[in-house]
Amino acid sequence: MDAQRILIIDDNNTNIQVAANIIKSEELLVWATLNPNEGLKIAEKKRPDLILLDIQMPDMDGYEVCRILKSNDTTKEIPIVFMTASTDDESINKAYKAGAVDYITKPIKKKELIARVNTQLRLSKLINDLKEASYTDGLTKLYNHKKILEILTSEVERANRYKRPLSVLMADIDHFKRVNDEYGHLVGDKVLERLASEIKQQIREVDTAGRYGGEEFLIIFPEVAGKEALKAAERLRRSVEETDFDNGLAVTISCGLAEYSGEDPRILVRKADDNLYQAKNTGRNKIV
Asked: Which of 1, 221, 244, 258 has the fewest C-beta atoms lying within 10 Å of its C-beta?
C-alpha cells in the first residue's frame, strides 16, 4: 500500500521541521512549503490525503487558503487541519466555517499531532472507500453501469463543445453462458476479472472502461476517430483471444464500435450495441 501523503503549509520553517519529523516517524510522505500560493499549487497537482495549515501567515492567512482549497473541485475533498496558537472560540469557529475538519494547538505536541492526523487519515480513507464502492463494479473494479454512462455524458458534452472526435466500444464475451455452464460460476467470475484486467492494460490512461452489465463492457475513447478506435479495438480483441483465462481456457469477444456524430449519449450507446449485435450474428470474435 502506498504511503499516505501530508502537505504542510506554514510560514515558520521551525514549525514545519517539527511537524514533518513527527509525521515521518509514522511512515507518512510529507510535502511542505512556506508559501501559501505554492501550497495551493502543490495541493492541486499532488492531491495530498491531508493538509496541515497554519492560520497566521503574511499575504494570505490560513482561512483564505482553506476557502480557496474548498472552492476548487480538485482539492475540495482534501481534509484540512489547522495548526494554530489561537484557541479562542472565535478563531476556532472561523476555522471550521472556512472548511477545516480539526485543529492542532501550537506549540506542537507529538502525541496530539499523531492522534489527530491518524484520525483524519482513517476517516478520509473510509469516506473515499465508500465513494469508490458507489461507482465501482465490485467484481471487475471497473466503473459500474451508472458511472460509465455519467462519464460518457460528460465526454459527449466535451466532444460537442470543442468539436473533438469521440468513439465508444461495446465488448461482449462470446458464449459466456457456456463458460458458466461448463466450468462453473467461479471460473466465470475469474474470466470477467481477467478480461477487465486485460482491458485496463490495453487502453490508454485517458480512455475509460466500465462494466455495462453481465458480460458486456463499455469503453470510451476520447479524442479518437473511427479508424484509430478500430485499431485500438482490434488490439484488445486480439489480446483477449491470445490470453489464457484459466488453465488453458480460451475466450473471445465480439465488439460494436460507434463514432460520435452529434447524437444523444444513449443513441451513441445504442449504435455501438447494434453493431455488437451484428458482430454476434455474423461469426463472433470480430468488430463491427
From this structure: 1
How many angstroms separate the CA atoms of 234 and 242, rounded? 12
pTM above the 0.90 mark? no
Question: Which one of 155, 198, 215, 216 is the catalytic residue?
Answer: 215
Of the chain, the percentage scoring pLDDT greater than 70 comes to 100
Each residue of 175-220: pLDDT tens digit?
Answer: 999 999 999 999 999 999 999 999 999 999 999 999 999 999 999 9
Nearest to 51 by CA among 97, 99, 94: 99
Q: Does domain 5-133 match CATH 3.40.50.2300?
A: yes
Q: Provide mean pLDDT across the span 162-185.
A: 96
182 included as an active-site residue:
no
In b/e form, how buried is each residue of 94-114, taking b as 16+ CB within 10 angstroms?
bbeebbbbbbbebeeeeeebe
Q: Where are the domains of the chain?
A: 5-133, 145-281
Question: pLDDT grade, residue 32 (50/70/90)?
Answer: very high
Strand partners, 9: 33, 53
Helix (H) or strand (E) holding 6: strand 5-9
> Residue 229, SS3?
helix
The secondary structure element, H or E, covering residue 131 is helix 110-135
Q: How confident is the model at residue 1 (pLDDT cuts 50, 70, 90)?
A: low
What is 145-281's CATH topology? Alpha-Beta Plaits (3.30.70)
The CA distances from residue 217 to 135, 180, 189, 272, in Å, are 15, 18, 14, 11
